[in-house]
């Protein structure tokens, strides 16, 4: 990774320095990378149940849509309220084009999640500047 970064950013080819690679490898002995922290199902449920609706309703709606649709950041940013349809007891979500250059459609049927989304939708100002 370091070699690629140096090559791309600084236009330096590490292969021209024959002692650099062994030196770097010796410095990495015993190194353990940090594990990424992930949200568990329990973390998500706790956040949705315990967070105050008055201050965190938008965050809850985004969390629900992001997790239910397995969205990337860009997909969440490009998503609009017009791409979500509330049909009886399900939400139909259109996830816009993204890194894969394809649009996805999926459904959310969890009644708790739907109620939170509906509450957000109903409280959202009709004249909001962002869709």
UniProtKB/TrEMBL annotation:
Residue ranges constituting the Tyr recombinase domain according to the UniProt record: 34-131
MF terms in GO: DNA binding
InterPro entries: DNA_brk_join_enz, Integrase-like_cat_sf, Integrase_catalytic
Superkingdom as given in the UniProt entry: Eukaryota
Source species: Ignelater luminosus (Cucubano)
Keywords associated with the record: DNA recombination
Single biological process term from Gene Ontology: DNA integration
Segments traversing the membrane: none
Name this polypeptide is given: Tyr recombinase domain-containing protein
Signal peptide: none
């Amino acid at each position: 990774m370091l070699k690629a970064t140096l090559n791309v950013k600084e236009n330096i080819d590490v292969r021209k320095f024959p002692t650099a690679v062994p030196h770097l490898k010796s410095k990495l002995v015993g190194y353990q990378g940090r594990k990424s922290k992930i949200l568990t199902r329990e973390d998500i449920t706790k956040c949705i149940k315990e967070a105050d609706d008055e201050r965190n309703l938008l965050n809850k709606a985004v969390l629900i849509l992001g997790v239910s649709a397995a969205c990337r950041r860009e997909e969440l940013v490009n998503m609009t309220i017009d791409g979500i349809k509330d049909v009886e007891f399900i939400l139909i979500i259109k996830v816009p084009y993204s890194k894969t250059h394809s649009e996805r459609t999926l459904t959310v049927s969890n009644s708790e999640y739907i109620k939170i989304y509906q509450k957000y939708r109903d409280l959202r100002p009709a004249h909001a500047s962002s869709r």
